[in-house]
Amino acid sequence: MRKLLIILALLAGGYGQAAGQGLISTFKENYAVTGIPLNAAPDWDTNDLSYQVSLRFNVLEPLCRDGWDVFPAYTQLSIWDVYKPSNPFRSSIYSFGLYASRGELFFGIEHRSNGYDSYESRTINAVFASWTRDWRPWLTTQLTARIGIGEIGNTTSLEMFTRYQGYGCAAVCFHTPDRRLMATASVTPLFGSDIPCNAMAELAWRPTPRVDWLYLTARWHYGYDENHLDCAVPDVFLKSMLRFGLSIQPENMAHKLFW
Predict the structure, then answer these.
(1) Which of 45, 89, 141, 212 has its CA 20 to 30 A from that of 230?
(2) Which of 107, 115, 155, 110 lies closest to 131, judged by CA?
(3) Distances (CA, A) of 210 to 206, 214, 215, 249
(4) Of all helices (H) and strands (E), which one includes residue 192?
């Protein structure tokens, strides 16, 4: 219960974050969603809760000039087996990076790790470039490419990119002009993997125009990019998860679509 209260407090704190005020604000989407697998029988072992906390630190804002936005940010994505006895956490991915954007372009250098050592360690250090375009008041697309170094069990391995995490991502979002309703999908191709891609789809709806930061959310996810511990593990059973909950959507669409 204490952990769930922490998650709800983070979501409630999104009001100030989404307003973009102060030294800390929302970076990527913040959410807490729970649900069931679509390719297995739902039970106490297969159901779970996924949450993401993503914050940007606006300490460099006074130094930005000529339309540039430069900032460090931190993101944590966790899968919580909340319905099992003792409520263990299955996995977490911790990400810290330095990001910059100007116009439609978004760049950065990023470190992602699952926080383990020895054989269970999974790490990505990468640079990326992303292009986001608003084609209509109701359509936004994004293309992203990244290169870097991956590690599995403290041993450098390109498999983190080719088989599990991908070198690039394509995303699209259909939304109302006021973004009260948003439908998002993203695909990350994989090469030499047992699956063709990592994939995500989301429907987010803001129930009242008077509260512009809190959304009811349905998310579908499939692939390796949600749990690094699934990488390089023989015969892992990948879940196709459908989850429902709450989210705080960032004001910048480039940050929402960035994976």
Answers:
(1) 141
(2) 107
(3) 9, 10, 12, 15
(4) none
